[in-house]
Amino acid sequence: MTALRTGLAALAATTALATGALACEITLRSSDTHPEGYPTVAAVEYMGDLLEERSGGRLCIEVYHSAQLGQEADTIEQTQLGVIDMNRVSLGPFNNIIEETKVFSLPFIFRSTEHMHAVVDGEIGDEVLAAFGHHNLVGLAYFDGGSRSFYNSERPIRSIEDMAGLSFRVMQSDVFVDMVDALGANATPMPFGEVYSAIQTGVIDGAENNWPSYESTGHFEVAGYYTLNQHLMVPEVLVMSQASWNRLSAEDQGLIRQAARDAVPHMRELWAAREAASEEIVRAAGVEVIEEIDKTPFIEAMAPVYERHVTSDALRDLVARIQAVE
Ligand code: BDP
User: Fold this and answer.
1) pLDDT tens digits for 212-266?
2) Which residues make beta-bridge pairs with 143?
């Protein structure tokens, strides 16, 4: 055992010497629910490469993909506690913790990907990232999460009436529970990793997500009706634990902020490519994609959700400013 360890250590040393790299002085552990190769995972790995290069090999990131560190709601808590250094998550599971994140999670708040980019890249995006600072977290960057649509195992949804009586899994956020209720269906908040078997065993009829997640999870195998109603465009966010952040020098904090920002354009390219690829896989598998859908009744049904969640002047102001962005 000891001999083996010594052998391995020697091997590691040779490899480091051979590549000319210094050993990482600080390795940040970063969580992601998605598998290797998914755009969010690849983007944080790319950020890690930038960081290593710019710090002369001192600062590294190790991505624990495939929910190795747990489901999102739990990993968020762990990140707040400083057990996990970095986390790439949807904004959805932050809604019940950080009020400001709700505005980007409202149904139909963004008119297009371009509108969403203009908002998150601008001062409103910065304000919402800053709100993480009051919750033991440091907001670093937004990633793309595409638009989310409903899928189920029972029947094609061609109108809002077809939603009646179906049960859908949503992310653990009251905004999404109220959204599904307002559409006449039943909402079941549940961790992402439990959805496949819940659909397969008939505990729920379906869920809602973007093309890449619908594909990578295999949900399309058990829920073969996908309706492109595109009710949500929730950005993804990369955050750091405030405790881990505080241990770094100001210079290293600057390197991390910059590397996160510089990973965003790369992430957007990866995302666009994966969206197209996932759509192709899912269609080729024979999923019935319902494209002709009048979104107006869906949009109109969301009034009570806005009423219920946009409750303060600060939130009303944010929503109005988002809508005013060209
Ligand atoms: C995916 C997000 C991921 C969420 C998941 C979900 O990328 O962060 O965990 O949806 O629905 O699109 O929970």
Assistant:
1) 999 999 999 999 999 999 999 999 999 999 999 999 999 999 999 999 999 999 9
2) 236
* 208 and 195 housed in the same domain: yes
Residue 22, helix vs strand vs coil = coil
Q: Are 175 and 104 in contact (CB under 8 A)?
A: no
Minimal-distance CA residue to ligand 1 atom 2: 90
Tell me the whole-structure pTM to 2 decimals: 0.93
Atom 5 (ligand 1) nearest CA: 192
Give yes or no for a contact between 225 and 290, defined as CB atoms under 8 angstroms apart. yes
Residue 17: pLDDT band with limits 50, 70, 90: very low
Q: Are residues 136 and 196 in the same domain?
A: no
* Domain of residue 188, CATH code: 3.40.190.170
* Whether the CB of 72 sits within 6 Å of ligand 1: yes
How confident is the model over 150-184, as pLDDT tens digits? 999 999 999 999 999 999 999 999 999 999 999 99
For ligand 1, atom 3, name the residue with the nearest CA.
90
Of 282, 147, 283, the C-alpha closest to 228 is 147
Are 24 and 53 in contact by the 8 Å Cβ rule? The answer is no
Q: Which of the listed residues 72, 211, 233 should we mutate to test ligand 1's pocket, taking the one with most ligand atoms within 8 A of CB?
A: 72
**Rounded distance, CA 21 to CA 59, Å?**
11
Tell me which residue range forms the domain holding 270: 2-145+235-276
* C-alpha–C-alpha distance, residues 270 and 291, integer Å: 24
